[in-house]
Every structure is written in structure tokens, then in C-alpha cells.
Amino acid sequence: MEILRTIYAEDMEDIATGGAILGTGGGGDPYVGKLMAQQAIRKYGPVQLIDIDQLPDDALVVPVCMMGAPTVMTEKLPQGDELINAFRALEKLLGRKIDAVLCGEAGGVNSTTPFVVASMAGLPLVDGDGMGRAYPELQMVTFSMHGVSATPMVLCDDKGNSLVLETVSNGWTERLARAATVEMGGSALLAFYSMSGATAKKAIVRGTLTLCAALGQTLREAKAAHVDPVAAIVDKLEAKVIFHGRVKDIDRRTVGGFARGTARFEGVEEWKGHDFRLDFQNEFLMAERDGKVLVTTPDLITLVEAESGLPVTADSLRYGLRLIALALPANPQWLTPAGIELVGPRYFKYDVDYTPFFTD
Amino acid sequence: MEILRTIYAEDMEDIATGGAILGTGGGGDPYVGKLMAQQAIRKYGPVQLIDIDQLPDDALVVPVCMMGAPTVMTEKLPQGDELINAFRALEKLLGRKIDAVLCGEAGGVNSTTPFVVASMAGLPLVDGDGMGRAYPELQMVTFSMHGVSATPMVLCDDKGNSLVLETVSNGWTERLARAATVEMGGSALLAFYSMSGATAKKAIVRGTLTLCAALGQTLREAKAAHVDPVAAIVDKLEAKVIFHGRVKDIDRRTVGGFARGTARFEGVEEWKGHDFRLDFQNEFLMAERDGKVLVTTPDLITLVEAESGLPVTADSLRYGLRLIALALPANPQWLTPAGIELVGPRYFKYDVDYTPFFTD
């Protein structure tokens, strides 16, 4: 098998930084996952990143994820054991050896959690994920659009409790797993969406872990070379700067296991005199400028510090912070009618249609 | 194997009536379960009721139950298929044929649900249960005091979703199963607490299904003979009449899947000028007369109609209803320190100690 790249503990820095950019303000802080992955890699060895085309069609591929409200995930540092427990329990249930680990969500903490399992299990990790970003609910993966069932799913907590779910739809899996996660104290570890190599080749968003690493590297090198880090990532991502301003108001609450809210900004420099508003449900999902909707999910909205280009999460927003907002194009799979139904603004109860921000 | 009694569809009437008396106001209306059991027995054949001592020590015994708020359980009539699905899924998981069905809770709807499974599976049903009454939470069974784990547990809903739970304690099983049940719409079907014949011989409350049948028969015969039905069941149960009055006030709400509240009564006849208060959490758990605590869980408190002796549930209480309150002695297993810890008044957040009402 041809290895795309071998990932050592020190490589996790760049991946976590890139994962936070694709986290679009949510997905949990990858700092936690980075520490877990580094610990696992130092103990169990590096991770072999592979292209999905390297796997035979009949290979068995399984994604792992952490589920929960980002604020809770950061407070309750999980152990690698809980992730590998969920993975091993699903393997036992499927009655077959798993051939490779997959990333469910390349944004936020879950850009790093699959490295923990790949290292501990000594299995290759596929370069790609099910979102190309972060999303708050577990049915919000490109896998859903290819008929892949989230179940059988194993969900473990840090106390030793576990659940196996078999459901009639991925929406029901989300509801039942969310209820269990809330009861378990706000975060849980999952192994789910088992699929064949053939299905994974169609269903995943390719190359997103390599993209995370490249984004982290870009920021690191820009810093070393004293060049504008924001310009460097805008260039790397075909992104657009949509605002530059200071946080003037934040309304944030945790509802049913989600961090929901709104942040308002007042413009600085070229955006002086303008205002900007971000709505989030774990992730930034809608951006309005001067009262007009500008960017909505599935296109990505991310916030970075003007000086460092480092990404900022919705829960670390605070009054006075000076930030640059970027819009990034969504993976084309999300721009289909099925994709818009699954993750478009109306699903999140925003009363607007998806209007493409990026037009050729 | 010696059969204690063969239960036909028409026998379910008496059992459901007796189950409602042991339901102590909660446990769900056995009318729903009676219909399910009668339907199953007519289609799959009668149920053989056996004494637990008829089973070998190495037999595998599994209780089945319905879980949920009584009001919801009555509205969402379940199908026998959902119960047998949970039972079969647990059997598959245990990797061994189940030898007999057990009743988890002889009060309310669950006095009848095991008949559905015993009939459909063609297995004997053990005469006994895990409570000798009804209780609102699933760890509140005598099985818990004998070290029997509720898990592995299978929980199914009416939509085709299922859950397998493995937990670190029966309290955690309750929490996670309750969260799933609420998410599933308020009711679910369970197979759990699998145990050996040897354990069941120590852990169950014996003879409670026969008692249900005898109570129903007593009421039926009293009606036919025009004798006082309340006196007849008082005699049968070694019960005591603790009040006779009219409902004057009801405070009832559904919280976290439970029907909680308080009912107040004003006395009639020999109790004229006195007042009476019942606190319930699905079941009646504490009775106060003239401002003094009189009877608490684990002793049983049940309400019956003065004319017919028929039991009345907490959710059917309404203003003006004229009822007789009875106190019934708890099974001795509940009167141990472990029993009081599991189901005594302090567990339910009532600020009183258990004081025995029945003293020799």
C-alpha cells in the first residue's frame, strides 16, 4: 500500500490548526484532540495517511468521532481508551476486522481524534472525511447522501457505559445519540458509519486531512517569514475576506447539547461604519453584513485573528476581540438538493434559502 | 415441568385488575397490556405459569417490561412485536436460548406484558416479579439487591429503533434508558436483568402473578355475590383502610418522563372533617393524614372506588371522585437497609424516614 504521508506527533500541530480553520467556529477545540493524538502516537507509533483509492473495494472502513457541546468537550478531556473501546466494540459487532480508520469531521476536535484510533489500532487513516468542515449533527455527513447508515453505532462515555444503536434513519441516530450524550454529561465517543472501500471512494470528501496539515503549515511559515498570515490562508483556500471588525455583542446559550447564539461585530479599517452578524449552532452557519444575508451554510464561515491568522471558536468569542471573517467554498457534494436539505440554512431554522456566495 | 396454572385469554381480566391494585396508582394502565396479552394468547396459545423452583439452577431467565410515563404508555398502544423483538435481540446477544420469561414489575401494565412474550415465544412464565408492586425507575427491583445487572439490556421503540446498553450500574442504566425513552416519544419496550435460575430463586418476589389473579377474582366474585368488594380485598391482602374521601385538589405534571404530583382529599363518612394527601411519582409514594405522614414507600398505597373496589390510577384522578385509600405491607426484601436505600422515601426526595405502618 502506498503511503501518502507518515504522521508523527509533531505533525499534529499543523493538523490541529488546520482543523480549527475548517471547524468554522465549532467542532470542539482541536487542542484537546491534538494532545490525545500526540500521546497515542508517542506510545503506539506514527499514523500512515493513505489515499482512499489505495483501499480495495471490499475493505471495511470505520469513522470515529467525539460528540457533544464544544464547551463540555474541552472541559472533559477524554482518554484515548474510550475511543478505541467504541472502535473495538463496533468491530466485534460487525464480526470482521476493520481495514482502515476514517475521519467523520475534518473540522474541530474530530480532525484529530481519528489519529488516536489509527495509532492505537495500528491501522492506516484515510485522507478525507464526511463533511470537509464541521457540523453540529451526526447525520450531516456526505455519507448520508450515499445511503450509508450511521448504525450499528457504538457510543461510549468516560465512565464505562456504552450503547449500541440500531435505528431506522440517521436522523433518529442523531436524536438518540444526542439524548445519551447529554445524559452522559455532555460528551461521548462514537464509532459508526461503517462502509466498504467502494462506498467510501464515492461518499467521502477527499484530501481534507492533507488540507488541514497544509493550512497549519501555511500559517506557521507565514509567521516565520513575517508575511501576512491571513493573506496566505486566503490564497491557500480560495477564500474571501468578508469582514474585519471587533466583537461588540455576544448572545450564547447551551440548548439540548448545542452551543447556540449570535455574535455582532462593528467594522474597523476598510469596514469602518459597517456591521456584521454571525449566527452559530456550535458552528458559524450564517453571516449577515449591514443587515443583509451574505454567506450561509453549507459554505464555510470562519473567524481568524487579524495578527496571527489563527482561528477562533464561537465559545472563545469575547467583547472587543478584533477578528477577520472569511468565507470558504463548500464541497460540491453539499450544493446538491440533497445536500442543501441536510445542511442548508432552513434545516437550522434560519428563514433564508441558500444563495451561493461563490459564483464563477 | 409442573405447571402451576395455564393462563388463557379470559384469565387476563383478573390478572390485569389485580395488577392495577399492585400498581399503586402508577405502572401504566394494565388495560393496554391486557389487550396485547389477549391478542397474543389467542394467536400463539396459552401461557404456562410455573413456580421458580421448577427451573434448574442453570436456566436462563429474562424479564421484559414497558418503560415510560403512564399517560404516554396508554396513548401509544404498543404492538406485541416490539416486545418480542427486544426479547429475541437480547437472546441473540447472550448467545443462549432463554428458558423462561419473568415479570419485572407485577403492578400496572407490566403485570401483563410478560404474558405477551411468554405466549409468542412459547416459553413458561415464572410466577413472581422484581417489585411485588410498581415503581417508577428500573433499578428499583429486588434483583438489584442480589447483584443482578440490568445490562446487557435491549430497548426497542415502535418505529424500529433499538438500543443495546452496557453500563457500570443499574442507576446509569435507568438514566440512559430514560433519556432514550423520552426521545423515543415517551415509551419503550425492554428486555433486561437476565439471570440464572439459581439467582432468580433468591432474587424474585414470589407468587405475585398468582396474587394478581386472585385479587381480580376476589373483586369479580364480590361483585357477583353483592358483598363489599373493598372488605374482600382488604381481607385478601392483609391491607388496612387508611382513608375514605373525595378528591378536592390535584397538582400533576410530567417531568423527565415521570408523572409527578400531589392529590388532596377531604374525608367522608367515618373520615368526615379529616384531610388526606397523596404524593406520587407515577406511583403513590407517601400518604399524609391530617398533616402527618402515615404510610410511605416501600409500603404500598393504593386507591380503589368505594362502590366497586376497582383500583384508580394517579392519572385518572379527578375532582370530586370518591375513593378509599388502602395501605398494603411491602415485601420483606424492601424493608432491609439496602431496600430502603433503593426505594425509601428519601430516594424520592421526600424529607422523611421510612416508618413502618404495619407493626406486629
Give the uncertain stretches of chain A in residue-range form: none
The general outline of chain A is globular
CATH level-3 fold name of the largest domain in chain A: CV3147-like fold
Query: Could you tell me how far the N terminus lies from the C terminus of chain A, measured between alpha carbons in angstroms?
Result: 38 Å
**Average pLDDT for all residues of chain A:** 93
Beta-strand proportion of chain A: 25-35%
| Helix and strand element order of chain A | EHHEEHHEHEEEEHEEHEHHEEEEEEEH
CATH architecture of the largest domain in chain A: 3-Layer(aba) Sandwich
User: What is the number of E strands of chain A?
Assistant: 18
Q: Order of strands across the widest beta sheet of chain A?
A: 16-15-14-13-12-18-17
Count of individual domains of chain A:
2
- C-alpha Rg of chain A, in Å? 19 Å
- The quaternary structure here is homodimer
Derived structural class of chain A? alpha+beta
What is the number of helices of chain A?
10
Of all chain pairs, the largest interface belongs to: A-B, 19 and 19 residues
Largest sheet of chain A: 7 strands, antiparallel
Mind explaining what this structure looks like?
Two copies of one chain form a homodimer. The mean pLDDT of chain A is 93. Chain A folds into two domains: 5-208, CV3147-like fold, CATH 3.40.1610.10; 225-343, Beta Barrel (CV3147-like), CATH 2.40.390.10. In chain A, strand 12 (240-255) and strand 13 (258-267) form a beta hairpin. In chain A, the strands form four sheets. A seven-stranded antiparallel sheet of chain A has the order 16-15-14-13-12-18-17. In chain A, strands 3, 4, 7, 8, 9 and 10 form a six-stranded mixed sheet that branches. In chain A, strands 1-2-5 form a three-stranded mixed sheet. Helices cover 31% and strands 28% of the residues of chain A. The first copy, chain A, starts with a strand and ends in a 17-residue tail after the last helix. The radius of gyration of chain A is 19 Å and the shape is globular. The first copy, chain A, contains ten helices and 18 strands. Chain A has 360 residues and is of the alpha+beta class. Chain A binds chain B through residues 159-168, 172, 175-176, 178-180, 182-184, and chain B through 159-168, 172, 175-176, 178-180, 182-184. Strand 8 (162-166) of chain A pairs antiparallel with strand 8 of chain B, so a sheet runs across the interface.
